[in-house]
Amino acid sequence: MKNFGYIQSNADHTLFLKHDGRRLTALIVCVDDIVVTGNDTGEQLKLQKYLSPEFEMKDLGDLKYFLGIEVARSTTGIFLSQQKYVLDLFTETGMLGCKPVDTPIEMYHKLCEDMDQEPSNKEQYQCLVGRLIYLAHTKPDIAYDVSVVSQFMHSPSVSHRNAVDRILIYLKAGPGKGLTVSRNRDLEVVGYTDADWVAPLLTDTLLQVTSLLWEVT
Hints:
Helix content is about 35%, strand content about 20%. By secondary structure, it is of the alpha+beta class. Among the domains are: about 5-60, no CATH class; about 80-170, no CATH class. A four-stranded antiparallel β-sheet has the order 1-2-3-4, with helices on one face.
């Protein structure tokens, strides 16, 4: 790839990039799969011809499924999701019939490391949290919660495992939810959330101020 004018990414050594003015071609390798994308169709054809004598390759067409991530295209853009990945996780954990909850973690949670708590299976806990970390790529709404439970990978307790299970139960409400990459030239990243963190904070503050004024008067 380097001999063909591509630059290897320092962030991910399996990613190779080639810039030609406003044209960009990217290639990423995962074991025996290669994904090629970009806005230079001619370069992609040249790259395929260049690599063919070195490797036995088969063109599978447009990307639809890669490393558990489903790719759906439309006139408005590209939609990324991990629905099959989530459903497989439900099946493996026996939680396919669970009823969903509205939030991935309890409000005002107090998860901490407590040596007196009943321990949980360490290997299972680490495996589940690892799967959730990968899911956060297309489900950023669980990113904070996963970061919380991942702090107890070395010594998980039953309460920590219950928190992990709650994240899974939350995912049951929308296993097909994901990220939409709109087809436009705007590079601004926009996010939405229905979590109202401001109201409880303001309520607590007003109660404290009211209490203080009452004591002063």
